Amino acid sequence: MEIRGSMMSVREDIRILDATMRDGGLVNNFAFTDEFVRALYEMNVAAGVDYMEMGYRASKRQFNEAEFGKWKFATDDDIYAIVGDNDTDLKLSIMADVGRCDYKTDIVDKANSPVDLVRVATYMHQIPEAIDMILDADKKGYETTCNIMAISNVQESDVQYALDELAKTPVKAVYIVDSYGALFPIQMRRITELYLNTMEKHGKLVGIHAHNNQQCAFANTIESMSVGASMLDATVCGMGRGAGNCTLEGLIGFLKNPKYKLNPVLELMEKYMVEMQEKYTWGYDVPYLLTGLSMQHPRTAIAAVKEHNTHYAEFYRMLHEDD
């Protein structure tokens, strides 16, 4: 597949989504202050970002509210308290995990919500329920996307089946999600082509959500974009679970579209993120590299980093003890 555009061209189809509050919330248990959330919202407006993810719409029946900050549940009332009527070009999104969201009751009609986009996150075996959630959100008036997680561990035939089924729905875009940070750019190019070959025929977009276990989140994002992905996830300072994500500042710096402004991001980083990085831990570390190379969930690496475990060879052997 040919490269779309060049280093100096503007792709008008590109849309950036800031996932700092949602993926970053996995770092601090969603304990963001209203001051920070409002500042992040104002930064996204000033920077020309297209979507801001306000958090998860998780089930309060499954998760104890006392154990999480409120953005684990990202209620409409809490979002309204930050953005008011959101009389801006910035669209707002929430993420709803299959099996972890009471979507029929907790996601109300769009006419009564500040949310514009519902992002349905699913593993491959949950695709039928993901489609039900997409249909429900579409009927209520929302834009929808589908984030297929842990794609590095899925057979291509299963991916193709899921894409064919999703192409029949009203979904706006389907995201490639490298949950384990296991993929390299040459692989990301092939997977993006696979997604595009199906989705474009049906007028759908392709998105990319990358993790940085092997320090490839930014490279994978721009590689996927170069062949046609147009919805790009990023977070400020790469804040996200474990090794984190593609950095918003890096992505805006790379894109040549004058609608995106870097300075508001840098100002927010100076005011909030330096201190936040001292308080919380995220970003590349050797255990994340090793789980990425092993195509495994980073939960063991997260524990190792928290414990300052530098017995890397022993950790790597542990990952492969059942091989």
Summarize the structure.
This protein is an alpha/beta fold and 323 residues long. The protein contains 14 helices and eight strands.
Can you walk me through this structure?
By secondary structure, this protein is an alpha/beta fold. It is 41% helix and 14% strand. It has 2 domains: 15-279, TIM Barrel; 286-319, no CATH class. The protein contains 14 helices and 8 strands. It has an 8-stranded parallel β-barrel, surrounded by 4 helices. Strand 7, helix 9 (217-227) and strand 8 form a beta-alpha-beta unit. It is globular and about 55 Å long. The two termini are 36 Å apart. The mean pLDDT is 96.
For the record, give the distance between the C-alpha atoms at the N and C termini, rounded to a whole number.
36 Å
Shape: globular
Largest beta-sheet characterization: 8 strands, parallel, barrel
> Widest sheet: strand order?
1-2-3-4-5-6-7-8
Helix content: 40-55%
Secondary structure: number of strands? 8
Rg, rounded, reads: 19 Å
Query: Ranges with pLDDT <50 over ≥5 residues?
Result: none
| CATH level-two architecture of the largest domain | Alpha-Beta Barrel
Reported by name, the CATH topology of the largest domain is: TIM Barrel
Query: Count of helices?
Result: 14
Q: Please, how many domains?
A: 2
Question: Topology as H/E string?
Answer: EHHHEHEHEHEHEHEHEHHHHH
Q: What name goes with the CATH superfamily of the largest domain?
A: Aldolase class I
